[in-house]
Write a structure and sequence with these properties.
The complex is a heterodimer of chains A (421) and B (224).
Chain A lengths: L2 H34 L5 H19 L1 H10 L16 H26 L5 H17 L6 H34 L4 H32 L5 H24 L8 H44 L13 H29 L5 H20 L6 H14 L6 E2 L1 H32 L1
Helix pairs in contact in A: 1-2, 1-4, 1-9, 1-10, 2-9, 2-10, 3-9, 4-5, 4-9, 4-13, 5-9, 5-13, 6-11, 6-12, 7-8, 7-9, 7-11, 9-10, 9-11, 11-12
Chain B lengths: L12 H26 L3 H27 L5 E2 L4 H27 L6 H26 L1 H6 L5 H33 L1 H4 L1 H33 L2
Classes of the chains: A mainly alpha (421), B mainly alpha (224).
């Protein structure tokens, strides 16, 4: 076995391990609110999560992937024509490998310590560490880095604002209405329509654009609107067949929103797969690209092979199946304080933000965006009690993650350099 | 386990209803205790008092647990201070029930025929006011479901008004019993008059506590 093949093999295993971590932990965060509110049973949550995480990863994952392998470090510097000479491409491959292992190790430790750490922040930190070891401060694309870090602050905030507005609208239109049952019947077709329109639009923009030629903007918007109206009309027809049943009108409202929340849960899983698969697959894609080029040249444009995305998506599903389902069950039992109207608002805000960010190619944390969504609902007077001390906890783990995973990756990279070269 | 859902703190609203249930359990025993007392059945009076005492203690435990789990870092849909005052006033209802038990068991005070009917009428009015309060307290989870808005708020404000009306009824009856008491002061005897005067006063303050509790909910709703 050649050194090159060994590097590739280890990179694939490390990438699979990263994807497994994401499936084991992050998916639970994405699905927790749905199971907690009772909108989804555990089995349904796992099946839907598996299907939509995988499709999101495979269909949309490519966009963010290139940012992780290219947007943080000046990969061109690793070219044989660069300062490192002929060893450059091998060093880049070792760097990506170290980044994967470093961040996976840190995630493992964080899981053990019970810290709410983001897989996204971890991999970005690890790649940063590798860049710093290779070229010092000059090797890092600071502009891109600033953009990424800024998006970490903007995304929970945006997720929060969208969730706040969504729950505010539900509150105003339905809960404040003298007849909440009638209001649910009247307004939820519009809510369904809006959700479907946004999902369609992002689907057209992400999936079709990646695979085929992008349709004109007007046509995309028209298609999204058509899909939304159709979904709204169908929802309206179905709603007329439902009965309020119990005396408590809010039970009916929640029952209908439980159905709506299934849609947003799929939306979150899809967005999560699209966004977070890159954490595992980005560095792998870079190594695969180098291997194909015979470790002779660093391409300026890394194309992510389809099978690498499948590997990432598969890893997430395996993580979900082996450990993730347990985490979802635990979380679902822990958070009984959320109801479908609240869960819907939080998930809608979060998923929209995540899809927006992944279409801009920004690697943000799905988990933290969902935290923003939950807080947004809380500020709209939707939740019984929010533990704001948890925010400090999350911010602390942010501050720790980037330096620590950078450090671990840098250490591994230095070791690997000594061993291989 | 790495989870962000530590974000969801334990809701104080469920335990608040539990507390209300325990307090209501003491309220339910008031009438049987007075029946026994009026009939001169001291043993049964004592038994009722003991049961109230146990329930009051259980309510206290829940109360302290709620307080322990309401740090300042919690974000609640209602004012934290209002919620704590609500809890305090609600607990006062059980405290008054216990006070009544103490008064009824500390001395074998006979019940003169002349005030018997009016006393039991007052007891019933106090229990009615407390029952109305209980209806309000039980609505807390629904209020949360409704996000403190809409028709649910109107319905609860209606109930709060009913508590106020019931409390006014107890005021009238309290005045009536006191008046009766002094009309028959020679026949009843000074010490017994003193005892009865106190009993009537505590009955009144029990209804007051029920009204204050309900009023605090009105305050919480008015702030939004």
């Amino acid at each position: 076995m050649t050194v090159e093949l060994m590097i590739l093999a280890i990179a694939l295993v490390a990438g699979l391990y990263m994807a497994w971590t994401i499936g084991a932990n992050d998916v639970a965060n994405a699905m927790g609110t749905s199971v907690g509110s009772g909108a989804l049973t555990l089995v349904m949550a796992i099946v839907l999560a598996g299907v939509f995480e995988f499709s999101g990863a495979v269909l949309v994952g490519a966009e963010v992937t290139s940012t992780i392998s290219k947007g943080i470090v000046e990969t061109e510097l690793f070219d044989p024509s660069g300062p490192l000479g002929a060893d450059g491409p091998t060093l880049l491959a070792l760097g990506m490998l170290s980044a994967l292992l470093g961040s996976a190790l840190w995630l493992h430790l964080a899981t053990y310590l019970g810290l709410p750490v983001s897989t996204t922040h971890s991999i970005v930190g690890a790649v940063l560490g590798v860049g710093l070891v290779s070229f010092g401060l000059d090797g890092v694309q600071w502009g891109g880095m600033v953009q990424i870090v800024a998006s970490w602050f903007v995304s929970p905030f945006l997720g929060g604002v969208l969730a706040f507005l969504t729950f505010g609208a539900i509150r105003r239109l339905i809960l404040r209405n003298p007849d909440p049952v009638e209001a649910t019947r009247r307004y939820s077709p519009y809510i369904v329509g809006t959700t479907v329109s946004i999902m369609t639009l992002s689907f057209i923009y992400k999936v079709l654009q990646n695979r085929f030629e992008a349709p004109p903007v007007v046509m995309s918007i028209f298609a999204a609107l058509t899909a939304g109206v159709a979904a709204g009309v169908i929802a309206g027809a179905l709603l007329r067949a439902t009965r309020p049943g119990s005396r408590d009108p809010y039970q009916y409202v929640e029952r209908i929103f439980a159905l709506l929340q299934i849609a947003t849960a799929c939306y979150v899983a899809f967005a999560h797969g699209a966004n977070d698969v890159a954490n595992a697959v980005g560095p792998v894609a870079a190594v695969v690209d180098l291997y194909r080029a015979g470790f002779d040249v660093v391409s300026s444009e890394v194309t992510v092979p389809f099978w690498v995305l499948v590997l990432g998506g598969g890893g997430i599903v395996i993580g979900l199946a082996t450990l993730g389902y347990k985490v979802i069950a635990t979380i679902g039992n822990e958070i009984t304080e959320i109801t479908p109207t609240r869960g819907f608002a939080a998930e809608f805000g979060a998923a929209t933000t995540v899809l927006l960010a992944s279409s801009l190619g920004l690697p943000i944390s799905t988990t933290h965006t969902l935290v923003g969504g939950v807080i947004g609902v809380g500020f709209a007077q939707g939740l019984a009690a929010l533990n704001l001390a948890m925010i400090r906890n999350i911010v602390n783990s942010w501050l720790a993650t980037v330096p620590v995973s950078a450090g671990v990756a840098a250490l591994l990279y230095t070791l690997a350099r000594v061993i291989v070269l | 386990m790495r989870s962000i859902f530590g974000l969801f703190a334990k809701s104080p609203f469920g335990p608040l209803v539990q507390h209300a249930e325990r307090v209501h359990d003491t309220v339910v025993l008031i009438r049987p205790m007075f029946d026994a007392f009026v009939a001169g059945d001291w043993e049964r009076t004592e038994e009722m008092y003991r049961r109230i005492e146990v329930l009051e203690h259980e309510a206290d435990v829940i109360k302290n647990d709620i307080r322990d789990h309401l740090p300042k870092s919690l974000f609640l849909p209602v004012d934290r201070g209002d919620l704590l005052t609500f809890l305090k006033e609600q607990d006062r209802i059980a405290d008054r029930a216990e006070d009544l038990g103490v008064l009824l068991t500390m001395r074998r005070t006979p019940t003169p025929e002349s005030i018997k009917a009016d006393v039991l009428g007052l007891v019933d009015a106090v229990v009615t006011a407390s029952e109305k309060w209980y209806q309000v307290a039980r609505e807390l989870p629904t209020l949360l479901e409704a996000s403190f808005t809409g028709p649910e708020v109107d319905r609860i404000l209606g109930l709060v008004n009913e508590v106020a009306l019931a409390e006014r009824e107890t005021d009238d009856r309290q005045a009536l019993v006191t008046k009766r008491l002094f009309e028959h002061e020679e026949e009843i005897g000074a010490v017994s008059v003193m005892m009865w005067f106190n009993i009537v006063r505590v009955l009144g303050s029990m209804a007051n506590a029920a009204e204050n509790t309900a009023d605090l909910l009105r305050l919480m709703l008015a702030k939004r």
